[in-house]
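Database export, one record per block. Field names are fixed; values are copied verbatim from the stored entry.
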Amino acid sequence: MNTPLFLLNLGLTVLLVGLSLWTGKRGVRRQHYLTVVVALVSLALAILQADLYGHGFEFVRWKLGVHLSFATACLLSIPFVALSGLALRHHPQARPRHRRCILAFLILLGFTVLTACYMFLDAKPLA
């Protein structure tokens, strides 16, 4: 797996997450739902590709553990974002909860990316 392709897919995922935030903020539900689904599929593919890419390196074990902890927490936050978003369809008062769930997801996603970068600083390529 080559680095430019991996980074391109990661960038595409970030772009799609941004697009889903933008469509949600604009209140265009149909486009928002579509971009969220496409962003989640792209995220799933980026995770699979990251796993394949990561098998070519030896990481410091505790750094990998920290990264995987943030990645797991990020993935576990997705159902809360989805459920709060669905609640928002019928209950406008759910908007603050949905925003907090989105913020938590974005913070966890940011830490996931940052810990991945930190993990790669001293990773050793396998022969």
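Remark 1: Strands lie at 57-58, 124-125.
Remark 2: The chain has a mean pLDDT of 94.
End of record.
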